[in-house]
Structures are given as C-alpha cells and as structure tokens.
Write a structure and sequence with these properties.
CATH superfamily: Aldolase class I
Shape: globular
Order of helices and strands: EHEHEHEHHEHHEHHEHEH
Number of strands: 8
Distance between the termini: 13 Å
CATH class: Alpha Beta
Largest sheet: 8 strands, parallel
Mean pLDDT: 95
Strand order of the largest sheet: 7-6-5-4-3-2-1-8
Number of domains: 1
CATH topology: TIM Barrel
Number of helices: 11
Length: 255
C-alpha cells in the first residue's frame, strides 16, 4: 500500500516570523506523523529556519524550485546542493506557475529532475493541463508530453523516491476543483503511462498527488480514489487549522 503524502506549497507567502508562527501553532495539533508523509515547502528565505523548527517532528522540509547547476554565475538561483544543506528532503519541480509565468520547458524540468536525484533530493514533479487544453480534449496528450519530458534519460532506479503531482491548471487558485472522478481518471492514466515508461513495479509504487483548490471540505472524497495518494496543497496549506484538518481527513480516510 502506498504511503499518503500531504505537502503544503506556500508559494511566495510568509516571512520567516510568519512561517515560525505557523509551525508553532501547527505543532500543537500534529503528532508524530504515523501513516503519512507531511511536507512543508516555504519560500527560500525561510527554508533554514523552518527546517530547524521541524527537527524531530517527523514533518519533512521541501523547496519550491531549484536550478540544475551545483554552483556558478547564476545570479538569483538556488542549487540542489544549497537545498540539501538547508535540510530539504523534497523539491517541487515543474509547477504550472513556473511553466507558464517563467516559461520553463519540459527540457528544463528534466534537467532539474536529473540534478535533484543526483543530490539526493526527492522531486515532486508537477504536470497538468490548462482549461483550453481540457476543453480541446488534449488532457492526456499534454500529461504524456510533460511526464515523458520530465523523466527523459533518467534511470528508473534514480526515480524510486519521485512523486508526481497532477495539478489541472484550471483548478489552481480558482476555487474550482476537479471532481473525484476527474482526478481519478487522470491519476489512473498517469499510473498506466508510468508503467509503460518505467515498468509496472515502479508504476504501482509511485505516489501521485492531486493539487488544485483542495481544502478540508473536499480532500476526503478525492483521497478515496484508488490512484490518488495525497495532495499538493496551496491556499489551504497557509493556515495551520486548515492544513491540520486536511491531514486529519486523510488519516480518517485511510482507516
């Protein structure tokens, strides 16, 4: 059975002080994570402080992005070595905001995934279609292109800790959520595709998260789908009570 993974992507929110205040309130309601992995992904400036606060809690630290080079003249970028040094275990790669706002290509995502696994980081690889692409019935072809692009020329052995996050772009920050059936349809397709690319053993073991306006009210119905293994949470992960409630709902759905 795949272990659920709940990750909060704070995006460009929270100062260091605000991040630590969140964690101190969050820690009052969270016990040692038993049946799932919980990941907090703050901004770069708060990574080290958040990592220090999370020590001994069982909650994992993740980053929201990285560059593929270890070091060099790349002003404004952060390397996988730096993320590892800050205490990161996970890193989000290929998020739709990186793809659409900052024009990251599948090739760039692939280079980042390669660099992350070499550094011992666990990539959370985001894929998803826009509203236009869904309406044109291109969802599966878009997902296939993104996944094949992200995993190109990477040995399966290096991908065993990789997480895939399906985030329909039309549902991110819009208040719209894919129905549980829509989420399951795409997750099932992703698992089938991963079987073709990496083999059945990998496909059965890999965790696939759903992201896109998840909240306490809808997370349980989404998590009850057989191919949904967790959530990459945006807005609802910015409030400790909300994120705790989601974790509790997921825990209850696994019982």
């Amino acid at each position: 059975m795949r272990r659920p993974i709940m990750a909060a992507n704070w995006k460009m929110n929270k100062t260091i002080t605000e991040a630590l205040n969140f964690l101190r309130e969050f820690s009052l309601g969270i016990k040692e994570p038993g049946g799932m992995d919980i990941v907090i992904c703050p901004s770069f400036t708060a990574l080290y402080s958040v990592g220090q606060e999370l020590e001994g809690t069982g909650v994992k630290l993740g980053a929201q992005n990285m560059y593929w080079e270890k070091s060099g003249a790349f002003t404004g970028e952060v390397s996988p070595v730096m993320l590892d040094d800050a205490g990161c275990e996970y890193v989000i790669l290929g998020h739709s905001e990186r793809r659409h706002i900052f024009k990251e290509s599948d090739e760039m995502v692939n280079r980042k995934v390669k660099s992350a696994v070499v550094a011992g980081l666990k990539p959370i690889i985001c894929v998803g279609e826009t509203l236009d692409q869904r309406e044109q019935e291109k969802t599966f072809s878009v997902i296939e292109e993104q996944i094949r692009g992200a995993l190109k020329d990477i040995p399966v052995a290096d991908l065993k800790e990789t997480v895939i996050a399906y985030e329909p772009v039309w549902a991110i920050g819009t208040g719209k959520t894919a129905s549980p059936e829509q989420a399951q349809e795409v997750h099932r397709y992703i698992r089938k595709l991963l079987g073709e690319i990496c083999g059945g053993e990998f496909a059965n073991a890999v965790r696939i998260q759903y992201g896109g306006s998840t909240k306490p009210e809808n997370i349980k119905s989404i998590m009850l789908q057989p191919d949904v293994d967790g959530a990459l949470v945006g807005g609802a992960g910015l409030e400790p009570d909300s994120f705790l409630k989601m974790i509790q709902e997921v825990s209850a759905s696994e019982c």
